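for the recovery benchmark. tokens below, seq after
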């Protein structure tokens, strides 16, 4: 009897569309690489501890807001942290950050949370910088460049393939 299919969970938050585009690209890459694998894409407000527990690997995608992960991503982690603590140890994850100028602090914050959950990073954080620096540019809808979306697809594909092959 074959082993049950692994599940990849992608949790994201996006206000201007950039992070959503990145998360959708990771989902597409995972689905293209492993067509039979369940790949769940959930907005942070809709993701719950049961979703985390039901998945075998994760992609966390967030904008960097005020040098931190977005409030709704923080809310997701706040709601999920203790119910899944010590129940997801060693599972793989990757991070996507859509930033206006830097993104490294949001990536560090995600890494600290993942370390607390004892998750295993399987890729460096993928940070896409939009260079939005004025209030108008920050609030404007984002359009992520094809080359950056391709990097997101490749990350999703690599994580899904690693899960399917039992590497992670």
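predicted aa per position
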């Amino acid at each position: 009897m074959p082993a049950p299919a692994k599940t990849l969970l992608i949790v994201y938050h996006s206000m201007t569309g950039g992070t959503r585009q990145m998360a959708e690209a990771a989902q597409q890459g995972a689905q293209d690489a492993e067509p039979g694998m369940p790949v769940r894409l959930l907005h942070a407000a809709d993701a719950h501890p049961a979703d985390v527990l039901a998945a075998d690997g994760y992609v966390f995608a967030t904008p960097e807001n005020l040098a931190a992960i977005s409030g709704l991503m923080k809310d997701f982690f706040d709601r999920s942290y203790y119910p899944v603590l010590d129940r997801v140890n060693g599972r793989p994850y990757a991070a996507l950050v859509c930033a206006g100028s830097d993104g490294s602090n949001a990536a560090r914050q995600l890494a600290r949370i993942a370390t607390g959950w004892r998750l295993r990073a399987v890729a460096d954080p993928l940070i896409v910088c939009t260079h939005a620096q004025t209030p108008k540019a920050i609030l404007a809808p984002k359009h992520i460049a094809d080359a950056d979306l391709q990097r997101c697809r490749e990350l999703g594909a690599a994580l899904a393939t690693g899960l399917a092959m039992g590497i992670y």
